[in-house]
Amino acid sequence: MTQPTLFWFRQDLRLSDQPALRAAAELGPVACVYILDDTLPWPMGGASRWWLHHSLTSLKNDLDKLGVPLILRRGAAKTVLPKLAKDISARAVYWNRLYEPAAIARDTELKTTLKNSGIPVESFNGSLLFEPWEIRNGAGNHFKVFTPFAKSCLMGKAPALPADTIRKITGAAINATSDTLDGWGLLPTKPDWAKPMKAAWDIGEKAAHKRLHTFLDDGLHHYAAGRDRPDKDNTSRLSPYLHFGEISPRQAFYAAKHIGETSTQSGITKQIDKFISELLWREFSYHLLFAHPDLPEAPLNKKYADFPWEPDDELFTAWSKGQTGIPIVDAGMRQLWQTGWMHNRVRMVVASLLIKNMLQPWQRGEAWFWDTLVDADLANNAASWQWVAGSGADASPYYRIFNPVLQGQKFDPNGDYVRKFVPELDKLPTELIHAPWEATPLELKEAGVTLDKTYPRPVVDLKHSRNRALEAHKRIKNT
To answer: Over the stretch 57-66, which tens digit does the pLDDT of each residue have?
Structure first.
């Protein structure tokens, strides 16, 4: 009997542009495994586990059509994988690389363990346009500013072309036990808080490609300016698919490039450049995490280790439940709870309010997003929260404190986003919907709004809290 190659699925739950699986298939029969490893730091949050269940269901169906079983195992991969490889007499083990610090350390240990057992190991790049060690500045160091990083990426060697979907693969004839997906308990039951999320997403590789092409056909043409409008569907919403690897960044990159090469529409190049820039922000986050493994826990700018936070459970609860009394913030936090996703512009606004107006530690907001986002990604999440906090790379200047009222008026000008997620304000006039506390008693009565009863007053004074944050940031800056 030909010894099988064991392929380990991780954040690459697809069959197209699958370099490690394709290489494994070229050697002969393949056995596939997914290991739910909750032993590492930052185990998946609730929303991600919900997505994973449906993603694995989709992947298993695709593999079944090819006659390849998917083995499910739960436990520490550093012990589960070598045992499985030994049990099936694997000739080699293949996987696509991960870049989280703990995953790097674990995978390094695994390679040593497997090779010492006489089992060759090969790893591939299936998740990034560029490996973190490939992009360096003139001094040979990692970049800390996005613009030169992006220029370096675009001026260098182009990303590898995505490989075709695997149409034929020989499944290994092995006798290996598998957990059941339902047995992992990834789906919430009591209560089933994911019910609204089901209507918001299709999950799996086919859904990822459908979303990409819908965006390229309908959203790309308004992307550069329209992506800041939470009331419009101008963003790609590809982030969860990219995180779970249901689509690769190479596929998104070259699909957009193809539009640029074939479209005759005026101004399309600007839209494509902006979309590619956002793909590169994702790359930049991984670049930062690789260079600074403590990015999710510690401020990159060490001065901020002594920032005078004022932890307050009541303020944090109001923020997390979308009950701050500031409509654009509450709309964003409720969108997050209902759909597992939040518009990027609003993510910046809600983070700014928590960190700067409320003086709550950015790590607490980061942890909330980690549990509630379907696109929770360690690199993106950490880099983005540190950007808003002013402690990260290429950070938002300390004096940039988003005014949520002005942000709402500018980017949700008709109040449609607020009305959708904060329906108790639906009948307020547009000119008041982003600041209901400015309405007269008669205007509130006509809209059916009673402040502090049907909708809260702001939990912080925006002007006072802004000045307080500025003073705190100035003290840190000047130390």
So the answer is: 999 999 999 9
Residues 6+ apart with CB under 8 A from 446: 427
Instruction: Tell me, yes or no, whether 311 and 454 share the same domain.
Output: yes
Nearest Cα neighbor of 200 from 351, 408, 50 is 50
Q: Which of the residues are catalytic?
A: 278, 281, 309, 344, 362, 385
User: How many other β-carbons are positioned within 10 Å of the β-carbon of residue 188?
Assistant: 15
Q: Are 436 and 444 in contact (CB under 8 A)?
A: yes
Q: Is 421 inside any structural domain? A: yes
Write out the residue range of the structural domain in which residue 279 sits: 128-162+205-291
Same-domain status, 341 and 399: yes
pLDDT in tens, 259-289: 988 887 888 999 999 999 999 999 999 999 9
Amino acid at 118: G
State in Å, rounded, how far the first CA of the chain is from the last one.
69
The answer to whether position 103 is within a domain reads yes
Q: 């009673």: which residue's tokens?
A: 450
In a domain, 50, yes or no: yes
d(C-alpha 339, C-alpha 375), whole Å: 11
- Please tell me the total count of domains within the chain: 3
Reading the block at residue 240, the tokens are 């969860």
The structure's pTM equals 0.97
- Has residue 199 been placed in a domain? no
The tokens 């034929």 sit on which residue?
A: 168
